[in-house]
Design goal:
MetI-like fold
């Protein structure tokens, strides 16, 4: 079979478009992943040559009390996921109305998602400021005269970051819920109205079951994202106070790029990968993936 110049040119054009993504994948994904896997069994401070230490980084990891405290902080963020999903669903129900100008509100609720993390952090640091912050000013106005210093309080720092993260990320989940809500057949609600079902019964027996796929997707991606929380503590608290907002990913960052313990940071990274992979696998097999109608 002969191949003419036109076919060769078309093939070369395809390879030209495929080239940059493939190069980027190898340079910024595959090679770093392989390198981190090797470094997890080595001790390397960037300056001196790496030294093979076997499983010492993993042994050190399991005996590191600070690391388990960071695990606790990370799990704390993971357990806040239902709050974020409930808020996103509430917003989706609000904007799932056939009202004039409703598109404007959808845009407003989605705007934090596309906003700069730095800008959002500056705004929320001002809101949480213990001396002149908007939140404490409001609390004093309603009679709470000794409000917490949110970002400097060990008890309140994590909830403060959760509120900020929920506000910033709710818009993307809202859109997914909105698409799922608009795909629910109106006939189901009409039949429920004929049967005299209340609004709560329609929500519980029609809306919520029909959102099972959306819930399944958002729970999986939400847990994966919660295990990798970094931007909020990095920009808002620097991991403080007293390490109360230091997550596992933040610990990876500090070990790798502040203390230059590349091997130990790589071991933490692979431990986190195994936790996320196992959690996702369990969810996939037992947590949903099916659609139930009641």
């Amino acid at each position: 079979m002969k191949i003419n110049k036109k076919q060769i040119k078309r093939a070369m054009l395809g390879y030209t478009f495929l080239g940059p993504p493939i190069i980027g994948f190898f340079a910024f994904t595959l090679i770093p992943v392989i390198a981190s896997l090797v470094l997890a069994f080595m001790e390397w401070d960037i300056i001196r040559p790496p030294v093979w230490v076997g499983f010492q980084n993993y042994i050190r990891l399991f005996h590191d009390k600070d690391f388990w405290y960071y695990i606790y902080n990370t799990v704390y963020f993971v357990l806040s996921l239902p709050l974020g999903l409930a808020f996103s669903l509430f917003l989706a129900l609000l904007v799932n109305q056939k009202l004039k100008g409703i598109s404007l509100f959808r845009t407003i609720y989605f705007f934090p998602v596309i906003s700069s993390v730095v800008a959002c952090a500056l705004i929320w640091r001002w809101i949480y400021n213990g001396d002149y912050g908007l939140l404490n000013a409001f609390l004093k106005y309603i009679g709470i005269y000794n409000p917490p210093n949110w970002l400097r309080d060990v008890v309140w720092a994590k909830p403060a970051l959760i509120i900020m993260g929920t506000w910033k990320g709710a818009g993307s989940s809202m859109l997914i819920y909105l698409a799922a809500l608009q795909s629910i057949p109106e006939e189901l609600y009409e039949s429920a109205n004929i049967d005299g079902a209340t609004g709560w019964k329609k929500f519980w027996h029609i809306t919520l079951p029909m959102l099972s796929f959306a819930n399944f997707y958002l729970i999986i991606t939400g847990i994966m994202g919660s295990f990798q929380v970094f931007s909020e503590p990095f920009m808002m608290t620097g991991g403080g106070p007293l390490g109360s907002t230091t997550t596992v990913v933040y610990a990876i960052y500090t070990n790798a790029f502040q203390q230059f313990r590349m091997g130990y940071a790589s071991a933490i990274s692979w431990f986190l990968f195994l936790v996320i992979f196992t959690t996702t696998l369990v969810q996939w097999n037992y947590g949903g993936g099916k659609k139930y109608y009641y």
